[in-house]
Design brief:
The protein is α/β, with parallel strands linked by helices and 335 residues long. The protein has eleven helices and twelve strands.
Length: 335
């Protein structure tokens, strides 16, 4: 396995937003399991990191990048919500910085211990089969459709096999590490030379969404409430709350928005796109409910084609979004 420094350089682009505030942007085809960006906030004494990635190796790689930026220790970690690509690396920060304070919404720990553990168990069960499958493709020289592997596809399968094998070994030793400092509505960290405001926005994308707002710098890390380049994931969403959360983000004096997936946003176009998407979704589903259509009929009818043209692979996510809005409209949505 390459060194952490090599992995870090291939996994992240470090973008400096202003003095002492940086974003680790995940690069295309990173060499490890890492999907979510991280915000790095320096104050006069320590560093705060927002979200900790999908794998321990990714968290360790980012720590190497932070050490290149500053000799200061990581004093705080903030989880914007409980999904694995935002919290699996918590364990590494606890090991490297024993006094680190991990902060999240009061619901995050419970969701990590229940839903999060269930997802981790599913990954541990599913990965061996997917690894064996890729090994067989490489052995036979034929892909999943039975056609011979091209050189390019073979290289991709080899990379996928390696990454999944390494990730499986990491997950075997993963201990979910929940926040040890929680809050309900708002928490302000008044650090030397920096004010960090944590604002609870859920239930929205999840019930524990947190926006990290730097009022003196005009920057807000918004987690998965905005997603650049992909259709938003509604699997644990409360659609009406999500729309309200987008309104609240729009009211912040934050010219710079940092989504967990995709590029830094320096205008309101992506925010407006997500708001229109949810409102259109709600309207279309409401029409279906008034017509007495079933969920399945509504999923066939509501495709949001105007919002998915440039977002490949959206079909399953759209169906999930329609289901969530349909259940909320019927008063049957569970938190």
């Amino acid at each position: 396995m390459p060194s952490l420094l090599v992995l870090a350089a291939a996994a992240f682009e470090i973008v400096t937003l202003t003095q002492g505030i940086h974003v680790a942007i995940v690069q295309p085809e990173p060499p490890m399991y890492v999907f979510a960006n991280a915000l790095i906030i320096e104050d006069d004494e320590a560093v705060t990191v927002v979200d900790t990635h999908q794998s321990p190796s990714a968290a360790a790689a980012l720590i190497e990048e932070i050490a290149k930026l500053t000799p200061k220790r990581v004093g705080f970690v903030i989880n914007t919500h409980w999904h694995g690509d935002h919290v699996y690396g918590n364990q590494v920060y606890r090991e490297r910085f024993p006094d680190v304070v991990i902060i999240g919404h009061e619901s995050v720990g419970e969701d990590m211990e229940t839903r999060g553990q269930a997802y981790l168990d599913e990954e541990l069960q599913a990965l061996p089969d997917s690894i064996r499958q890729r090994a067989e493709w490489l052995r036979s020289g034929n892909g999943p459709d039975g056609t011979p592997l091209t050189d390019d596809l073979r290289a991709r399968v080899e990379t996928s096999h390696r990454m999944r094998s390494e990730y499986l070994e990491e997950l075997k030793g993963l201990v979910l590490t929940p926040p040890d400092r929680t809050f309900t509505d708002e928490l302000v960290l008044r650090r030397p030379g920096r004010t960090i405001q944590l604002i609870a926005m859920g239930p929205a994308h999840t019930r524990g969404d947190v926006v990290v707002f730097l009022p003196d710098d005009g920057i807000a890390a918004v987690g998965d409430l905005l997603e650049d380049g992909a259709f938003p994931y509604f699997g644990h969403a409360t659609p009406s709350g999500w729309a309200e959360a987008l309104n609240r983000i729009g009211e912040l004096d934050a010219p710079v928005l940092v989504p967990s997936h995709g590029a830094v946003q320096r205008d309101r176009k992506l925010l407006q796109f997500h708001f229109r998407l949810i409102r259109s979704l709600q309207h279309e589903v409401e029409v279906s409910v008034l017509r007495g259509l079933s969920l399945e009929q509504t999923q066939e009818r509501v495709t949001l084609e105007g919002f998915t043209a440039d977002l490949p692979g959206s079909e399953d996510n759209v169906r999930t979004a329609v289901e969530k809005v349909y259940l909320e409209e019927k008063g049957e949505l569970e938190p």
